Amino acid sequence: MYTFDTIVAPATASGTASINIIRISGKDAVNIGEKIFTPKIAKNRLSQNPRKLIYGHIVHNEKIIDEVMACYMNAPHTFTCEDVVEINCHGGKKSVEEIISIILTSGARLAENGEFTKRAFLNGRIDLSQAESVIDIINAKSSKAFENAQKQLQGKLSKRIFDIDNTLKKSLAQITVAIDFPEEDVPEVTRQELTSDLDYCIENLQKLEKTYKDGKIISDGINIAIIGRPNVGKSSLLNELLEENRAIVTDIAGTTRDIIQESLSINGLCVNLVDTAGIRDTSDVVEKIGVERSISSIENADIILLMLDNSTEISNDDINLIEKLQQKQYIVLINKSDLDSKLNINHIPDFIDKNNIMNISAEKKEGIEQLKEKIYSMAITYEDENTNSVMLTNSRHYALIQNTISSLKDAKTAILDDVELDIVETDYKDALQYLGEITGESVSESLLDTIFSQFCIGK
Ligand code: GDP
Ligand code: ZN
């Protein structure tokens, strides 16, 4: 275990709250705690009562600063694996500021961003991918993102990585032995064993690699644009999906002049929904800006909902919009299914997949649940056989997994081609280096700094 100096930071968000927590970690934590905290009952000294919440006061120069509850948690079973003192003081900026300044004059220094979590990693309580999941837990925008980050914190990603890591280390040992005794030919069975272990590792890494697309959607949410001519019912659908009246619904064409953006959850998935201004040729300057924004929101969308009006025939404006769906994920919605149909479905261009056409009535709330299901199944495409398994959400991990796969494929080709084992050995070492950057086993100080600087202070 490393020994570090003693650090302090507010653990709760700044601003007013009912309680704020100040965290001190390091070898002097309990000394500093006892210096500034006076228990109400004298015998309840922090150092004598680990893991108990004790009532008392922060006292400085014989003056009571705040009424608090304090707790001393002794190493090593703490968040950082170090001695930790936590002080629950009154919410409010002043209370936190004053107590922290007293702690600073008593020998601690202000923690850097993510420094508590960094210590938990450096002291071996969690690996790097677990430490990184702490940010994802804090930033989770949906229940699915939260759940996935929790799995990563529990070590479900690391477990899969360590399994591959161990297999590769075993193979590397066999290769090293073979290199050390070059006079003996590498037995055929060793080559077979090496390639079958490589296949196992590549297959498992590829499974993980495939989870990234969904994982990214789960962590960032999915962008959906609703497009269509004015008056087809886009705003009505948005309201229906949001179950509230956010967008202005009118029967005057061109009312939604700017784009409206809202987020909602579909089965725990965060959906960022954009209701675009009706797209049509217009001379109105303000409406024109809205139309341009609509077009750019199409470009940014992961899925486009293109809306047609069942009560009118398909127009040239509709066709122009439909053309924009090429190369995109889309659903064509024929809205106002409650009205008499004047729309000839055969006029929808052929490239549109019939499975992606749905009839709905935004006004009568028909087809909305089916639409939500369709959106979800389009967004989440990769189904692992083990639905409980963790998904890759971090672009750094994704790149490292891809690099690992490519090194292992090189190793396999080299083995099959009877290439010198020294060369094969390099591929294995590269692969292990990449995996080590996920678990933190082989990671540079500067990379650690970059990773932990993304944390907030106090974490
Ligand atoms: P937008 O311009 O595409 O956003 O269209 P709106 O949502 O503002 O709706 C235009 C008009 O169509 C309004 O009068 C709505 O009440 C009406 N409308 C929307 N959806 C339906 C529907 O499913 N059935 C019927 N009958 N009318 C609808
Ligand atoms: Zn509208």
TrEMBL record:
Residues in TrmE-type G domain copies: 221-380
Residues binding Mg(2+), per UniProt: S235, T256
InterPro entries named in the record: G_TrmE, GTP-bd, GTP-bd_TrmE_N, GTPase_MnmE, MnmE_dom2, MnmE_helical, P-loop_NTPase, Small_GTP-bd
Natural source organism: Peptoanaerobacter stomatis
Protein name (Swiss-Prot/TrEMBL): tRNA modification GTPase MnmE
Subcellular location(s) per record: Cytoplasm
Matches recorded under NCBIfam families: mnmE_trmE_thdF, PRK05291.1-3, small_GTP
Keyword GTP-binding in annotation: yes
PROSITE patterns xref list: G_TRME
Binding, K(+): N231, T250, I252, T255
